[in-house]
# Entry
Amino acid sequence: MRFFRFTCAPSFRPATTALLALLLISSAGACRRTPGFEASRFTSSDELFRASLQQFEMKRWANAVRGFEKLTTDLPPRDARLPLAYYYLGRAQGRLRDHLIAAQTFSRLSANFPDDTLADDALLLGAREYQALWRKPGLTAEYGQSALTMYQTLVAVYPSSPLLPQAEAGVARLEQMFATKDYDTGYHYIKRGAYDSAIIYFKDVIRKYPNAPKAREAYLRLLDSYRAINYREEAREVCDTMRQTYATDSEVLRACPAPG
# Structure
């Protein structure tokens, strides 16, 4: 991920350097700890931007949030610093574990500035903030779906982004969680003897998440369900598919020995 690192004077990606050069040069000697931070006391957006960056670098996340939040309302829409203000605001909010607010901030950045060099960063970071709100498959998957949407948007809209491998890895992790959620629901129905309902969920895992590791288990439990209700033709079809898809898997071969 292309995070900006700095000590006193911050450094930016090439696309933003020229736009903010004067601002950063003027802040070269300004790094010092101050006894307090009040965003409203700064007389110009330049001063507030420099001070907010300093608070961010010193890991004073609440101060950074106050400063950059004010900048997102004070700066005019075409100001080159506005995307950066949203970017640092979202990162500071995330550090405070305000994951939902951070995700919404990154969403605004990607939506309002789709041509900015930070748009793909915002989608990746926003997806991760949403993902942080969905830690277990058994929980409501609303935030997981939001994370998946942001990852998929990055992949679709910015196919040349260097962040693409990270987005694809995020999609794979989420798909496994969604697959686990559906699989666990299907397994719950198996234990209750509700095989018809179980079959629906196992089929969903296989159809929607064929590349997720959980798909293999869904095939096996689908086979168990068909056999339990004596659906022989369906069971044979599942075995044929599994022998092709998992040709060297010992558990699959035990469940579906080759016809002889």
The CA atoms of residues 120 and 157 lie 9 Å apart. The domain at 176-260 is CATH 1.25.40.10 (Serine Threonine Protein Phosphatase 5, Tetratricopeptide repeat).
